[in-house]
């Protein structure tokens, strides 16, 4: 079992390929099998989350780059890569045959960044531009098995040869891919741009209580102004208000996905 | 950021509870700290200014959802016919009027039956 464990830990084998999974004899065999399955799932989940956080950190760092550079900032490269992956996915979805180089040419002809590009990657005719798109394609389609994490498995379902498309949903494709790439915060900020305006004159407790809804207090700050099935609107209890508790709640929510995956 | 968030929670309190006496009374019944609410209103919003959705960067979507839910509410069960909606009082008043005339009709019918029975007894 120790040999199996060490092999699995150092990546020589997956848990499900080890003897402790395949030759499940003995007193605790079932427990070991379930543990092996769970470890495989957890491992991927943890690596995925860490990778997404790294990608997002890299994106945020790229945004800090000075705009008056002689070449495009890193954030423009991110944008170009993401746009190309989305373009590939949509093109493959619409096309009946598999990918050809025509898709690369079409992207370079139609995408506006190639019109006045500064760096070589943004010059459609350059070898660097072609190499960048090819690398992006490999990453997006998970052709490089060594990089199967960082959302590669997920993207493979969209942009790879075994693509998964039920109903047309180009509209949501960009958002989905951004989430897979660990850039979900961009989805939020993009959707947040939709202006939410309007008066709130009628929204008083007396007006709410004059109809079917009622207000109810709660000690959970995350429930503030949410609905319950019984028609109550939950209000956070101000007597519990404490910046320290609020800070802890924020931290707990931020770390929740990682904590769940480690359990 | 945390401080902005905390202040916005109090702004939602002001929005819901701080703009008329009836709402203040509800706040008191719910156990809201009225001293802080009044102080908050006095210092930050001395005049009863109109609050807009854009004044709530954190909670604007939740407030908008509450508005939408209130506007869209319609009675789904028979028991809910007695509840007056926020945007469509016509259903409620139609039901109340129909109930009124229904009760009057039933009472009239019962009176007629009693009267007929009484006259039958007196004739017999």
Radius of gyration of chain B: 25 Å
The shape of chain A, in one word, is flat
Largest inter-chain contact set: A-B, 38 and 45 residues
The H-and-E topology of chain A, N to C, reads as HHHHHHHHHHEEEH
Strand order of the biggest β-sheet of chain A: 1-3-2
Hey, roughly how much beta strand do the residues of chain A contain? under 5%
Would you report the number of β strands of chain A? Answer: 3
Averaged pLDDT of chain A: 68
Count of separate structural domains of chain B: 2
Query: How large is the radius of gyration of chain A?
Result: 25 Å
Q: Which range does the strand content of chain B fall in? A: under 5%
The percent range for helix content of chain A is: 40-55%
SSE-based structural type of chain B: mainly alpha
Notes on the structure:
The complex is a heterodimer of chains A (263) and B (124). Chain A has 263 residues and is mainly alpha-helical. Chain A is flat, with a radius of gyration of 25 Å. Chain A starts with a helix and ends with a helix. Chain A is 55% helix and 5% strand. Chain A contains 11 helices and 3 strands, in the order H-H-H-H-H-H-H-H-H-H-E-E-E-H. In chain A, helix 4 crosses helix 8. Chain A has a 3-stranded mixed sheet. Chain A folds into 3 domains: 62 residues; 119 residues, no CATH class; 58 residues, no CATH class. By secondary structure, chain B is mainly α. Chain B folds into 2 domains: 60 residues, no CATH class; 52 residues. Chain B contains 5 helices and no strands. The radius of gyration of chain B is 25 Å and the shape is elongated. Chain B starts with a helix and ends with a helix. Classes of the chains: A mainly alpha (263), B mainly alpha (124).
